[in-house]
Amino acid sequence: AELLKARGLLNKLTKDNFAKLTDKIEKLDISSQDMLKSLVGLIFDKALGENKFCAMYAELCVRLNKHQYPESVDD
User: Fold this and answer.
1) pTM to 2 decimal places
2) Which residue among 6, 34, 53, 54 is the one 20 to 30 A from 21 at the CA level?
């Protein structure tokens, strides 16, 4: 369910609503390493498909990297 929410948020992500939607993405319940890898995969696929927004997706990754995930999610 969380990954479906993430996909929906990524589909709506623009430079204008970046802060608002990134906050929502950061609040998703990413409770396992597999979920985190899947989220990163979704972001990577979006960046490949939308080259002009690569910098925005890179910034999203930077913000997610600063997020504290539960200890169950390995580095």
Assistant:
1) 0.83
2) 34
